[in-house]
Amino acid sequence: MRRRHLTAVTAAIADLAAHPDPAALGDGLSGPMARYCLAMACGLLDRGALDRATRVPGQPPRQAAVVAARGVFTAPLEWVALLATVGSSVTLKVPATAPAFGHAVAAAFQVHGLAVEVTCTRDLPEVDALVAMGDDTTMAVLAARHHRARLLLHGHRFSVALVQGSSAELARALAEDALLYDGRGCFTPVAVLHLGRPDEAATLARLLGEAMVELRARLPAGAIDPLHGPRWRLRAGLARLGGGLFGTEGAAAALLPTSAFEPAALPGFLPVHPVADHAGLAALLAPWRTHLAACATDLAAGPDLDALGFERRCRPGHLQRPALPRTHGGREMLRPLMSHRSRGELDHP
Fold it and tell me: What is the DSSP secondary structure assignment for residue 322, as one 8-state letter?
């Protein structure tokens, strides 16, 4: 049964990747950016990856729901694909203000006989399992409404890059991490934390600004919220005073001290903060430990890196390319949603 579902899901994703108008699905992204991101997201969900990621013990939920937030338009796709592969019926709840991608997903999966529906309403059916992404308030509401279901709730998180290099190749990789999806979502780095000499951090900031301008020329920005304008000008002004600003508006890197660190991404703006050592790094991130998502790093794994508490680590350039199988929220994907009772029994954790 799983093999049949795997074949159908793989075919549905291939159909979605061939969508004739990715810009219509991209929630305001430019045509080139939406096309690039859709191809990237679908490419990560090949048959082998889905097969490995769904070899999880237990009984899958009969009925599951996936609640998507605005931001990274492709974010719910991997969860729908995983659940459909193990045979769950899936309700995909999408934002009423950006429903196009959800409708395209449901249509592609339904063509191949998979039980995937889409809704824009908040009144979800009774489900055995719920995966949700959004702000912390929304997660609390969903937890209260669906307390009898197995829950994977992903509230506010942010990511950073932690590096010691200063090469042009590294800068190009970090530019992708920063600019893909126009800087939306929890895998967009809020900052580059550079462990090394201050002059190397300055070199990286300059190369990063150049790389961001080059990438933005190939993948132009879509509609950017005008409310970001005052914040961008403030951060740019701080950079000019505190270290340097490199690039252009909407595609710039900055050199700033750690006192200017902010745990929130600003689209088209990526600061580089020189950090003296691991002790300084740990002190900087400690207040935000429960909100740490992913870390793009060129450092070797070790106790110092493990102790920081990131739920996912990857190479620079791969923050926006979360490959399967992996953990999500610190746990193996799907495992918390599986029941270890028979399908004839109720499972109320």
Answer: -
Cα 349 to Cα 10, 328, 339, distances in angstroms: 32, 20, 10
Please say if the pLDDT value at position 317 is more than 70.
yes
pLDDT band at 341 (very low <50, low <70, confident <90, very high): low
Residue-wise pLDDT tens digits, 203-215: 999 999 999 999 9
Domain span at residue 36 reads 2-156
- Does residue 337 lie in a domain region? no
Q: Rounding to the nearest 10 degrees, give the CA dihedral for residues 79, 27, 120, 139.
A: 60
Co-location of 117 and 247 in the same domain: no
DSSP 235: H
Q: Is the pTM of this model over 0.90?
A: yes
Classify residue 331: in a domain, yes or no: no
Cβ neighbours of residue 325 closer than 8 Å, sequence gap 6 or more: 49, 52, 53, 332, 333
What does the alpha-carbon distance between residue 150 and residue 134 come to, in Å, rounded to a whole number?
Answer: 17
pLDDT at 330: 63
